[in-house]
């Protein structure tokens, strides 16, 4: 190991100018690439496409549309829609939405669409027509009265017209591919058009426009994500001040920050070169990369200073620091990288992207902060004054380290371990109460007070529709809807599902056919049954168009749509479990009840994927950390003292999630892997000195004090720097960033404390023969 | 007689298969589609999917195990005996106030539902339904005999049938089976049986339904209920809010200004009746009922109901099917389940 280090050191430091030149050119190139970076959001990235449910979803998406729809509620502020201004606006909104690129034009529905019809039963049979007649004139009060009567007959109050008659709805489905370019639809551009062309044009003193749906949500997330630039600036400023206080030198402050910024530039440039965009959901990663870069940079200036105190000049000090840190720093960064890479096992596009983005960024830091930084520092002139100043600081901190070093004495160590054990037991219990999925109503990525969530609450409040529904797809043979036994099985199954707690109501071709059958029998509810006679059944079904979304072209696939009270994970899993239990009573070789489609179907799959990924992810990330520790320290004891505190902290982080009601979701799942990957750095830095001392025969106490002197201030400083960097996210307008900020801050700080308090306490007992007398 | 025998055999064979079908005990049964209610010292409610609920206090309702999933459309109480009828020509009987049930008839292949049932005693009763379906029992439902009543037909249809009866007896039977109107309701009162049915059918019988006399009424839509209000007054309600009253042998139109089909009549007091129907409509009328000219083409949007008639809708607008008075409350059944209200 040390021979390789020497060789690299020799090559690098004898070609310093060349190294700097290469880095400069690469930075220019990647900087250009990074400037081409675009925000990139897609619906499918957020879902586990290979999950069984999503396979069903993808297979039938063409027939039934997906979960990717847009609801636009146009509301009259005076509380009554029946006036000229409202109907003119509604028509404009309908037309405008129809023409926005990316909307599936055959599926735009509102009062103005020709498919919105009413039917009434009269003595001779049925009478009916479009709710808004072709010759509709909004300035004529009679015409408005007629429409009002038709709306009642069409039975659309609660769906297309709000229950209090103050709003009307325009709905649309989105295409996955842009019909003009054939490329995947640019969701963010689409969301911006919605905002400009609908809300911007038509919202005024009389009319309010409320838009919900995935595309709008992700658009709002992207807008919120732009705050990130601001947070980034604050984080850099705070970090710069802190680094300055740490090293008391402007040059030494600028260099690690510069190298860290270079790392971020490289990361973004490389991503663009590889063809990735930046997803709003993983926009935090550059932050992390910067923070990690700074923390390793600080280790480097710390090491250079320690060398410089010996009065050996900047170049040799830099070389010494490089030699000392290449291995522990490399191992630490490698374990970060591996920690992030483990996220690749999770089969959700966006988490994989996060894994690639983050591991790329961290790998880049190995080059910029372990290699470029010492090279740059070797050009510095460290004068006598500075060296002396630093020396003085060393002596002041000595007293502090002596106090901390007591952690490795028997008494304090015992107390520390007991407290840790109690915390662990408590945390372990709590962590099992951790909820999967989204725990709150509305879009979980956004705050409850956000416009989007307020719109969601308004729409779910004023209409009987809910955005929380799951479809069970009945897959059977062509023309199966004309078979009494198939329809009866669907109807029976549907009734059992309606009785499951959490299901509010439901609809399927079978339930609609029953109502139509009653309609054919003079609207007599006593005939609201599925006719056994095939002709009669066909007659009933023929009135249900495929655009209803209740059957495909040859009715071999028919969804049973279950509307849910909420999308809490326990509600979802209760309903999904009920589907799995009941369907066994009805399934035959020719008829399958497949899960799932609809927004809640997607959530069900995501929840299951996240839940299933949690344990393997933890195993992989800890496996990687353990393997790397074993390789670098060649000691089981050393590995244990690093890994045990790390594990306790990750369990406590889960307990914190329970306590703060943060569910395990696509955005919070990676946090623990990130936290462990970065948290291990502290232990590795402390232990790399400590195990060296131990090998040379020092006692645990001596070795620890030595490690504290060598690395302690840098570790403390690193923990605080990282924590400050991520804690600014608490002020984010995005809920998930806030959650991630809280969790990462917790993991960084507590892991740091674990490394300087719990690690020595554990070491005191693991190396039980190597203690000071009386310690 | 042969045919009735065959039906009995078929019923007993099929009932074995039907035994495998048990109604699902559902938490939401009280909010399901419930179609009829009857009460004496206890209450029985029947509805879709073979749902039967019983109650002794009118407040708590208990779903009981029933050996069918067929939708039940009507029920009647006679002492401790209860009968319920419905789709698949199912007839159920309970001898213990509705706690346990047995199948007396089940003919899914007939593809015809029963729509009402009445019993004159513990032994004698009739069940009626679609396409003139008419079953009679004299032994408490142990055996049921099918009857066909051509006298329920409109005069022109009857003449047509008489014609072919002579020429082609087989074809006559076939036509008789399909031409008869739906019988929606039978109401016994003081030894007379009143009947309401499809396409303007109102009739009465003085011998327990063996022979029928059609009333003449100027309406061709369906009637869903007929009820004597006193010795001289009959009230009939039906499709699209139509209400007719008969005094002195003449049926006259009562304008309700509602286009919601009326399913049943509830006699609230000597002064007031309430008709209930689809869209949760309640039409309350003071007696004596005001009559007016029947104009089928009148616009409903500028309609003034006659004096003493008030309409209102229940909140959920669910179709109201029937109601009974029990222990100070009105228990109504609707497409959204049980509704406790006060119509008295």
What does this protein look like?
- The complex is a heterodimer of chains A (775) and B (344).
- Chain A has 775 residues and is an alpha+beta fold.
- Chain A folds into four domains: 1-36 and 227-382, Up-down Bundle (Multidrug efflux transporter AcrB transmembrane fold); 51-223, no CATH class; 395-432 and 635-775, Multidrug efflux transporter AcrB transmembrane domain (Multidrug efflux transporter AcrB transmembrane fold), CATH 1.20.1640; 468-604, no CATH class.
- Helix content of chain A is 62%, strand content 9%.
- Chain A has helices at 2-14, 16-35, 52-64, 84-99, 141-154, 187-202, 214-225, 227-247, 250-273, 285-309, 314-341, 349-377, 384-405, 410-431, 451-462, 484-498, 509-520, 534-541, 569-583, 598-633, 636-659, 669-695, 700-727, 735-766, and strands spanning 69-76, 103-109, 117-122, 125-130, 167-174, 207-213, 469-475, 503-507, 557-564, 592-597.
- In chain A, the strands form three sheets. In chain A, strands 2-5-1-6 form a four-stranded antiparallel β-sheet, sandwiched between helices. A four-stranded antiparallel β-sheet of chain A has the order 8-9-7-10. A two-stranded antiparallel sheet of chain A has the order 3-4.
- The two termini of chain A are 34 Å apart.
- The relative contact order of chain A is 0.11.
- Chain B has 344 residues and is mainly β.
- Chain B has a domain at 1-147: TolB, C-terminal domain (Neuraminidase), CATH 2.120.10.
- Chain B has helices at 2-18, 155-167, 169-179; strands at residues 34-39, 43-47, 52-55, 62-63, 72-78, 81-86, 90-94, 102-105, 114-119, 125-129, 134-137, 145-146, 183-189, 192-197, 201-205, 213-214, 223-230, 233-238, 243-247, 250-254, 262-267, 272-277, 281-286, 309-313, 320-326, 329-334, 337-341.
- A four-stranded antiparallel β-sheet of chain B has the order 1-2-3-4, with no helix packed on it.
- The model of chain B is unreliable at 1-20 (pLDDT under 50).
- Chains A and B meet through strand 3 and helix 16 of A and loops of B.
